[in-house]
Each structure stands twice: as structure tokens, then as C-alpha cells.
Amino acid sequence: MSRITIPTVEQSPAASQTLLAAVNQQLGMVPNLMKLVGNSPAALEGYLSLSGALAKGSLSAQLRERIALTVAEYNGCEYCLAAHAYLGKNLAKLSDADIAAARSAQAADEKSNAALQFARQVAEQRGRVSDTALANVRAAGFDEAAVIEIVLNVAVNVLTNYVNNVAHTDVDFPAVSLR
User: Fold this and answer.
1) pTM of the complete model
2) Dist. CA 33–CA 39, nearest whole Å
3) DSSP letter, residue 26
4) Average pLDDT per run of 10 along the chain, which is 179 residues long?
């Protein structure tokens, strides 16, 4: 049971209701995380703005979902793990094997694998990655803009992991157990 109130869309502040309607239009539902963050219209707007901007970047939806899975598993966020396993499979079209591998910061292709290894190091080291880690992700073919996008994708997922871990957000996606 959530430790912070998850309002219905109708119970949310008026400024959040418009944003939640847009989420509903995009996903066909309003996940509990969005309703929870919607307790603060400013927080919801900030989260949606950053997520939307990153979706326009150079990283594919598949890689962004893989990063989300890597970070959720590392941070022990059951909600995000369930949400991104679902979104990874149904929206990004990742296979079950891709999802399982991403949870361990692994991917079958070398370039994605390098990105996930780097993302995991960013999370583990709280951004204080080694010169070698940075050189490895660059050697895999990621330019400086893409490296920044990987870091920001880690950060936006840490944000939601922390919100969910604090709140104990009720999972409204098919459950996935942490390893």
C-alpha cells in the first residue's frame, strides 16, 4: 500500500489534470506514478518535460527502456521494473530476452551493451565514472550528445525510482520481481 496518497485524476490539482489527460491520451491509462507525482503540478510538469525532451533525442526508445530497466533493477524499484518491462515489451518491442539482459546491464549488441554498462556505472558511481568508462562508451560509437543523454536518462529514472521507493507506489503493471 502506498505511503503517499495516489489521487484519482479527478482528485488531482487542476494544473495536474491537464497533464494527466495528456498521459492518458499517450498511454491509454494514467499510471499510479503519474497520479502520485501529480500531487505536485510542478513536479509532474518537470518530469514530463524532461522525459518528453529525452524522447526527442538520439537514443532509441529501445535503448531508453533498457536503461530504465538497468537503473530500476540497480535501485531496487519494483514499480519502475514492472512499468518498464511492460513498456519495453509492448511499446519498444523488446523481447523477453532483451528485458532480462537489460536488468543486468547487458545487451546482445555491442553498442547497446556499452551504453548499459555505462548507465550502470553512472548509477553506481553517482556520476563519478572513470576515464575508462567514458572512453569505452565513446569507443562504442556514442558521441558527446549521446553520452549526455545516457546520463540524463539515468537521472530521470533515478528520480522515479526514488519517488516510488519512498512512496511504495502501488504497482499497476504486471508485477516483476526484483532479483
Assistant:
1) 0.97
2) 10
3) H
4) 97 98 96 98 98 98 98 98 98 98 98 98 98 98 98 98 98 96
